[in-house]
Amino acid sequence: xxxxxxxxxxxxxxxxxxxxxxxxxxxxxxxxxxxxxxxxxxxxxxxxxxxxxxxxxxxxxxxxxxxxxxxxxxxxxxxxxxxxxxxxxxxxxxxxxxxxxxxxxxxxxxxxxxxxxxxxxxxxxxxxxxxxxxxxxxxxxxxxxxxxxxxxxxxxxxxxxxxxxxxxxxxxxxxxxxxxxxxxxxxxxxxxxxxxxxxxxxxxxxxxxxxxxxxxxxxxxxxxxxxxxxxxxxxxxxxxxxxxxxxxxxxxxxxxxxxxxxxxxxxxxxxxxxxxxxxxxxxxxxxxxxxxxxxxxxxxxxxxxxxxxxxxxxxxxxxxxxxxxxx
Length: 327
Fold this sequence. Notes:
Blueprint: H1 2-9, H2 13-34, H3 41-66, H4 74-90, H5 96-121, H6 125-144, E1 149-150, H7 154-161, E2 163-164, E3 168-169, H8 170-188, H9 190-200, H10 202-207, H11 212-238, E4 240-241, H12 249-259, H13 271-291, H14 295-326
Antiparallel strand pairs: 1-4, 2-3
């Protein structure tokens, strides 16, 4: 069983992502024709910096969805961890390093709680993460009183605004490193094999001796960790902790995953596809901003994109099932 899973699980980067690559190319051409500001070096760096936050979150969401679950707490954890980390430094006077560790551990704790509840009590992840989303949002608002907290600490600010060799923004560097690490975990380790196996056929995975509960807890914990890190970097970039900043981040992350070919039914997906999906979302937002389209219209566009991607995904799976039956 495990050998069969091992052979079938590895995604093919080019063939599996050819559709999203074509979409990305066409999108770049359209936006570059609509505005001459798009292909400037400054704007390209800006796009990469913007998509980095969504990519951190979407990496964890990819693992969650492949596993057959969903995590709606990610946006709230981004806001909560960013707000509390800044508050720990400004209001409580904690050392920056200790505050950062505390903020990240808070996100890890939320992810761990989600994983334990989902795996132990068999509660649908949609329901429990929606409940925990409200808890995280509530903590951020109660702690901050609904107000943003300004921070001027140079070290903390440099985390999200600094550059490597005065060329590569640090958030982009983090993104590249995280993509490499999560890709390795998903494709080159037994952990990745188990994630695909559980999402593809939970009962078969159980019968083959895969520790389903342990894997679920680890994946949800990783999602919490990545969301907390995203909140830390975002707060640094914004020079403040804001309790409302995470609104909609869960939708952007899900959109990136689905656009990149991750099946909402579980068992299928890739980090490369998710990264391309995040790029599509980022370029759409950037292009609409450059053209001067209202942010309200951008919400409509993103909603349509998610709905279309889910419909296409369901039809693709239906087509594959019919093809197998005909054979």
